[in-house]
Every structure is written in structure tokens, then in C-alpha cells.
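note to self — DONT lose this again. spent like an hour looking for the file last time. sequence + predicted structure for the chain T wanted, 133 res
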Amino acid sequence: MIDVTMPPTLLGELMRLDGIDESQRADVRKQLVAMSAQALRDAKLVELTVDVNSAKIETSSTGRRYATMPVTFIMDVKGQRMRSIGGYLALQDSGRWYVLSMSDGATIRSIQAAYPDLDHTPMAPPKIEVITQ
């Protein structure tokens, strides 16, 4: 079973940007978990490679521990095999570690807004290519 979690600071920032007030946040979080679980059902992970030897573990200006690591994964999505080459960001939030995929520019901007102490951390969306159809 995969537990889909998001750091509370990032989730709060995303909901703030969307105008969702505190009273609705628990319901929205449940909806996000359900949507993520559905997306995972539609995709089959074929291969995942995390280059731990190239991971960079650092400390932000506020003392937050974080790491960036190169990642390549291959997955089948509705009959297409795709390769994604990019990176993950692992960070501490509220005493827990979270691993975030830097999936697109909007996600990266949201991470940087939620964690301004990481605004100088190199982040780029992955390169995605279709291998077979």
C-alpha cells in the first residue's frame, strides 16, 4: 500500500493559493489522497532508479535539512511506456521527512512559496519521453 502524504506547510500553501479556508482543508486533503490513489492505479511502475551517490544533503538558511537526488523511472500508463528523468526533493517539515517530486513548474513554484528558505535550491521539472506506444 502506498500512503500518499504531503508536507503540511506545502498543503497549506496550495490551499491558501486556491482560496480554501481552514474548515474545508480536511475534506480537500481526503479528495487529494483519493485522486492520487486513482492516478497510481492507472500507472504501473516498471523501474525506479534513485542515484543516491549523487544525492546532495544540505541545510537551508533556517536550519531545515533537505536533499536533492537524481531519479529516473519508467512506467506504463494506459498502454504507453514512459521514461521520466528528473529529481526528488526530500525535506523535513514538522519533524517528518517528505519526498517530493518536482513534476512541473507550478509544483516547483509552490514548493518555493511554501519553503522560502529553499528558494535557491536547484529544482527543475523532469524530462519525460514516450518509449513505446
